[in-house]
Write a structure and sequence with these properties.
Elements: H1 2-65, H2 71-123, H3 150-175, H4 200-212, H5 216-234, H6 239-254, H7 258-275, H8 281-296, H9 300-318, H10 323-338, H11 342-359, H12 365-380, H13 384-402, H14 407-422, H15 426-443, H16 449-465, H17 468-486, H18 491-506, H19 510-527, H20 533-548, H21 552-570, H22 575-590, H23 594-612, H24 617-635
Helix pairs in contact: 1-2, 1-3, 2-3, 4-5, 5-6, 6-7, 7-8, 8-9, 9-10, 10-11, 11-12, 12-13, 13-14, 14-15, 14-16, 15-16, 16-17, 16-18, 17-18, 18-19, 19-20, 20-21, 21-22, 22-23, 23-24
Length: 636
């Protein structure tokens, strides 16, 4: 009886010790939840500060080159940002050190638990099962540093780290009270995730470093490994498991696999809604990213439709003026824009501009950006005069808020010039581009793509205004610079060469234009392919200039071959196919075969009536030429 009582007493003592160890383990896990959130937040803040340093460095360098009065101020801001980044990195290092210590303590506690569990198994006398091993759900304390002064944020972080350090010290002291043999962790292979050199914190740091360095494929693979390990250890529904799945999807997207990211986000939405609830911020964030990647994968209509219920739910949960609601509305408008519904996108942007101006202020970068998008979609919807006026107003505000030399200000001036031309005022557009070229050359340099683009549009508007010879010369100079900057096979060079050939023909030198088009066809066929729309268009213009140069028979044959290819590539009823048939019939008559020209126009007229209708201008033009060649054929 004494032996049995002693065995029972030892069993109860072991059970009591196991209970205390499990309670300690649960305290450690509770602290881990807050610690992990702090680490993730610090990683994000260090990354944001690094991005800010890069932006300020670029601004400082740009102002230094232009000897701007704001150079000294920019240098001061940069120094402050670098100091803030260093201070935040120091807190991150301390938090990671606590994380590593906690993982070592967790391994020691698990060793104790394993030994005690085995001992109870040996002593088991039917006294009942062991207490549950699942920790309680950790509390969630959010930190929103973006709304606070950096010094206040650092003080709060310090208090969190100090409290965490105190908890770890207490747990370390408690572990020392357990028998020595029960604190020994069983030998594990070097590749174990619990060894100091290969902890989860180390893997997280590796993934974060790869992402920060732009190696998103490596970060994706590291997170995939973490997802597998965390799922195995913590379970599929643990908050950390869901978080790692989210980051795995993020890096998959950054690596360029948008369809893969979309498919990773889709089941995560289901699991987060089940575990956290459909209204949880993380669930909403995953829905937002899923919609974004759906669009980036090419299905913009589906993305647009996904944003609609997200906006409804974000409005209900967060409020109409919450930044997440406003952000979802912007993406909804953007997706609508990409589907080609420009009038609908215009109206969505217009409503958003009103609310952003009220919530963020009229001078906030997001407000200004949305005003730019609204002007763009107004133009794409066909109201070029209204778009022109919207851009003009935006130029004033961007110049005041960002400065006259800011890239966004210059871009708005470019679009203002473009819409001015599209509204029919080509002389004003030409002059706007001329002024923009001067400023872009000074700010960005003569070889910057934006400078070269402005020069190309300036040449175009010069030609449209009627000064074809000046446009031809502008294009000629631009060809030289574009070729030097981009190489002779670049599409921008081909585009400028096309403009040069067109302006040369408009200036009256049809033989030269013909030869320029002929050379361009050779290069477009080699670079773009024989069936590319640009190649086919250049062949059409080459035939036209051949005719204008006096060789109607050659032009007729060029059009005949082009008809065959346009029917094959575009179809028999495509407007370009019908235009080429129209020109082929006319050149056939000009080459001397009036009867065949009449018959060809009869076929063109029949198809124009069927495709365009009897009153369409192209149908009426074909009808006039059919009657003309029929009359000439009768006269012999």
């Amino acid at each position: 009886m004494v032996s049995v009582n002693a065995e029972q007493a030892a069993h109860l003592e072991t059970y009591a010790q196991l209970t205390r160890v499990l309670e300690t383990r649960d305290r450690l896990r509770d602290a881990a939840a807050e610690r992990d959130k702090l680490v993730w937040m610090l990683f994000a803040m260090v990354g944001n500060l690094q991005a800010k340093v890069e932006v300020l460095t670029e601004e400082r360098d740009r102002l230094a080159v232009t000897a701007s009065e704001g150079a000294a101020q920019a240098e001061g801001k940069l120094r402050q940002a670098v100091d803030n980044q260093a201070r935040m990195q120091e807190r991150l290092d301390r938090a990671l050190a606590n994380q590593r210590e906690a993982e070592e303590l967790s391994a020691r506690l698990q060793g104790c638990i394993d030994e005690m569990t085995e001992e109870l198994g040996r002593r088991r006398t039917g006294t009942g099962g062991l207490p549950g091993l699942n920790p309680t759900e950790p509390s969630r304390t959010s930190v929103e540093p973006e709304q606070e002064d950096i010094d206040d944020v650092l003080l709060r972080i310090d208090s969190l780290i100090e409290a965490d350090t105190g908890t770890l010290d207490d747990i370390t002291d408690e572990i020392t009270q357990y028998p020595q043999d029960r604190r020994a962790v069983r030998d594990k292979p070097v590749t174990s995730t619990d060894t100091p050199d290969n902890t989860w914190a180390h893997q997280i740091a590796q993934a974060e470093a790869a992402a920060a360095a732009g190696d998103h494929a490596s970060a994706r693979d590291l997170y995939a490994t973490l997802v597998s390990e965390v799922t195995r250890v913590l379970g599929p529904d643990h908050p950390d498991t869901l978080t790692f799945r989210h980051y795995h999807a993020d890096q998959t997207a950054y690596a360029g696999d948008h369809a893969g990211a979309r498919d990773l986000y889709a089941p995560l939405i289901t699991d987060r809604a089940r575990v956290l609830g459909p209204d949880h911020p993380d669930t909403l964030t995953t829905r937002h990213n899923h919609a974004s990647q759906t669009g980036d994968a090419g299905d913009h209509a589906a993305a647009r439709d996904l944003y609609v219920p997200l906006i409804t739910d974000s409005t209900r949960i967060n409020g109409f003026d919450h930044r997440h609601t406003l952000e979802a509305r912007w993406w909804h408008a953007h997706s609508t824009e990409i589907t080609g519904a420009h009038a609908a996108a215009r109206d969505l942007y217009a409503s958003l501009v009103t609310d952003l101006s009220r919530v963020l202020g009229p001078d906030h970068p997001d407000t200004l950006t949305t005003r730019h998008d609204h002007a763009s979609q107004t133009g794409d919807a066909g109201d070029h005069a209204a778009a022109r006026d919207l851009y003009a107003s935006l130029i004033t505000d961007r110049t005041r808020v960002l400065g006259p030399d800011h890239p966004d200000t210059l871009t708005t001036r470019h679009n203002h010039a473009s819409q001015t031309g599209d509204a029919g005022d080509h002389a004003a557009a030409r002059d706007l581009y001329a002024s923009l070229i001067t400023d872009r050359t000074r700010v960005l340099g003569p070889d910057h793509p934006d400078t070269l683009c402005a020069r190309r549009n300036h040449a175009y508007e010069t030609g449209i205004k009627g000064d074809s010879a000046a446009a031809r010369d502008l294009y000629a100079f631009l060809i030289t610079d574009q070729t030097r900057v981009n190489g002779c096979d670049h599409t921008r060079v081909l585009d400028v060469r096309y403009g040069h050939a067109s302006a040369t023909g408009e200036a009256g030198d049809h033989a030269a234009a013909r030869d320029l088009y002929a050379s361009l066809i050779t290069d477009q066929t080699s670079i773009l392919g024989p069936d590319h729309p640009d190649t086919l268009t250049t062949r059409h213009n080459h035939a036209a200039e051949t005719s204008y140069a006096g060789n109607h028979a050659s032009a007729r044959d060029l059009y005949a071959r082009l008809i065959t290819d346009r029917i094959r590539v575009l179809g028999p009823d495509h407007p370009d196919t019908l235009t080429t048939r129209h020109n082929h019939a006319d050149r056939t008559g000009a080459a001397g075969n009036r009867t065949l020209a009449r018959d060809l126009f009869a076929g063109v007229l029949s198809d124009r009536v069927r495709v365009n209708g009897p009153d369409h201008p192209h149908t009426l033009a074909a009808q006039d030429l059919y009657r003309s060649w029929r009359r000439r054929a009768l006269l012999g």
